[in-house]
Amino acid sequence: xxxxxxxxxxxxxxxxxxxxxxxxxxxxxxxxxxxxxxxxxxxxxxxxxxxxxxxxxxxxx
Length: 61
Known about the structure:
By secondary structure, the chain is mostly helical. Helices cover 51% and strands 0% of the residues. It has three helices and no strands. It has helices at 3-8, 27-38, 45-57. The mean pLDDT is 84.
């Protein structure tokens, strides 16, 4: 492999595990999720949900 090819090869990042939630939430919960994102406390609903799960039941580490 040439130096140019070697520099283009990136190490693989671990893939996210896909969990199909398909969960409905109440209007107040959805409003809270939107507020959390607007305040910049999470970048997305996914991140907000992951943070809440980690705070409630521990870390994934």
